[in-house]
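so im writing up the methods section and need the 6-carboxy-5,6,7,8-tetrahydropterin synthase record in one place, dumping it here so i stop losing it
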Amino acid sequence: MYTVIKKLEISAAHHLVLDYESKCENLHGHNWIIYVTCQAESLDANGMVIDFKKIKELIHGTMDHHNLNDVFDFNPTAENIAKWICDTVPNCVRAEVRESEGNTAVYEK
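--- predicted struct ---
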């Protein structure tokens, strides 16, 4: 099994829609740290699981310096973003989304 891991740093804002009162309901930003893990049994014609540039284009291009509530049609929690990454990036098996030191969400297929 081949595994590649891409680390991304993204600046983005969001607000959460919650069923309880929280200051996270207000628009605020994070310097997100995201790790994307992709795996494949065999390599493509270029000798890759996936080009690191492709991972960056899919995630960084969608999220960086945006209001995530305007980008996604779901509540942009770290958990939901991690799942979106796994569903969006080819061969992704794990996404780790850290919105701040000590606050990390992981989604694994």
